[in-house]
Design brief:
The strands form three sheets. This protein has a five-stranded parallel beta sheet, sandwiched between helices. The chain has a five-stranded parallel beta sheet with strand order 10-9-8-11-12, with helices on both faces. A three-stranded antiparallel beta sheet has the order 1-2-13. The protein has three domains: about 10-215, Rossmann fold (3-Layer(aba) Sandwich), CATH 3.40.50.1980; about 220-360, Nitrogenase molybdenum iron protein domain (Rossmann fold, 3-Layer(aba) Sandwich); about 380-410, no CATH class. The chain has about 425 residues and is of the alpha/beta class. Helix content is about 45%, strand content about 15%. Helix 2 packs across helix 5, helix 3 (about 60-80) runs parallel beside helix 4 (about 120-130) and helix 3 (about 60-80) runs parallel beside helix 5.
């Protein structure tokens, strides 16, 4: 049940810490140097211009635009349902408590670049930031060899009302969001998945108390599928492969109570891999794959709870009846007609999820991650008279005399 080991973690930490320090000290100059070194392009201006954003729509094929539009509406509908309406609770007569919800003042969204554009990630991060009402949203993404961000990403960002977009990636982009430069304003919280450099940078900047928050240290992608005799081996295989193609360090696991299902799925994995463009990446990831035979679906769920997967797929008879038994999973997919790729793109749920076992204590990204809560209390004199003895007794038990006196003086009429 072990995840693939993170390679050379100490060396990685040292390198990333150096990048962060350099950006902190030298700002935009360091960003330009790292963009040249790691992205292979010289940039005089790292901010995406207004004209670039506006022209992106014309560069995106109509069919892709429509798909982005549909995904946007789906994600928006799901996250709108998460809006909370604060209530005032009178815990006893004269004692009123409530919660005030405010949007994060400034957020930074990291959208990975590389060989393929990821407008889906721009939507998954941009939609909840937009619905939360964050006054300032900054998006960063690595440029291509022509010094551009994919028009699909720019179009998705535009749908979410994002106008501050920068052509920077890697650990240097996280450093810029955390500390700020002449061009990039520092933010209060950083969101988004990335490679091991990005993940390490997020962890390091978040350790500086009071500097910046992060959503989660998202690591390599993973899926765990539970299947029984009713499962379609072709569906199971392609769901495994859809995660394996994310990267060579992805991990895919099949747990089944049916040995024939495992053997048939193995054959389908081999057959389907032959036709996939990212075959070399998949084959590397499959070195970390596991096929586990168990006695029952119940036992499979026990194993899954031990692993705490990012994605959990149930291809079993009546999958809904097992939901109460699932303790740890980032996102759950029920039945043969619910591929994991639906959650990645357009079902409406968020695809930024806890990995590496952190589903035990971390949730999938949601609207509340872009908000802060302040508790409010208001007590009348009669309310304090009712509650005062409880407060004073507990304060005295803890040896905090000023706490006790803060109530006692009020009830005696205060100092004159």
């Amino acid at each position: 049940m072990l995840r693939p080991a993170l390679e050379q973690e100490k060396e990685l930490e040292t390198l990333v810490a150096t990048i962060i320090s350099n950006v902190r000290l030298r700002g935009d100059q360091a960003l330009q140097e790292y963009t040249s070194r790691y992205d292979g392009v010289e940039l005089n201006d790292i901010r995406v211009s207004k004209s670039e954003i506006e022209s992106a729509k014309q560069k995106v094929p109509q069919q892709v635009r429509q798909a982005i539009n549909t995904a946007y509406e789906q994600i928006k509908a799901f996250h709108m349902a998460q809006i909370q309406i604060p209530e005032v609770i009178e815990t006893m007569p004269g004692v009123k408590c409530s919660v005030r919800i405010r949007a994060m003042e400034s957020v930074g969204l990291y959208v990975p670049g590389g060989a393929t554009p990821l407008p889906s990630t721009a939507l998954m991060l941009g939609v909840p930031a937009q619905l939360a009402g964050c006054p300032r949203t900054i998006l960063v993404s690595p440029p291509d060899k022509q010094g551009k961000i994919a028009p699909e990403v720019l179009y998705a960002a535009q749908k979410c009302g994002i106008t501050f977009i920068y052509k920077i990636g890697g650990a240097q982009a996280i450093a810029a969001l955390a500390y700020g430069t002449d061009s990039v304003e520092a933010v209060d919280k950083i969101f988004g998945p990335g490679n091991r450099f990005v993940t390490m940078a997020k962890q390091l900047v978040s350790q500086k108390q009071g500097l910046v928050g992060i959503d989660m240290p998202a690591g390599p992608s993973e899926v765990l599928i539970i299947a029984d005799e009713s499962a379609n081996p072709t569906f199971v295989a392609i769901d495994l492969l859809s995660q394996a193609e994310h990267g060579p360090d992805s991990q895919v696991i099949l747990i089944s109570s049916n040995e024939k299902c495992i053997e048939s799925t193995k054959k389908e994995v081999t057959r389907l891999t032959e036709s996939l463009e990212r075959r070399s990446i998949i084959e590397e990831a499959l070195k970390f794959s596991r096929y586990i035979l168990v006695d029952s679906v119940d036992e499979a769920i026990e194993v899954s709870n031990s692993y705490a997967p990012e994605h959990l797929i149930l291809q079993v008879n009546d999958p809904g009846k097992y939901l109460d038994d699932i303790k740890h999973a980032g996102s759950i997919f029920l039945g043969p007609w619910t591929p994991e790729s639906a959650g990645d793109y357009a079902s409406g749920t968020n695809h930024v999820l806890p990995t590496y076992g952190s589903a035990r204590f971390t949730s999938s990204l949601g609207l509340s991650d872009f908000q802060k809560r302040s508790t409010i209390q208001e007590i009348t004199r009669s309310g304090l008279e009712s509650l005062g003895s409880t407060i004073m007794t507990l304060a005295a038990a803890e040896g905090l005399g000023a706490h006790e006196m803060a109530v006692a003086l009020r009830l005696k009429g205060g100092i004159r």
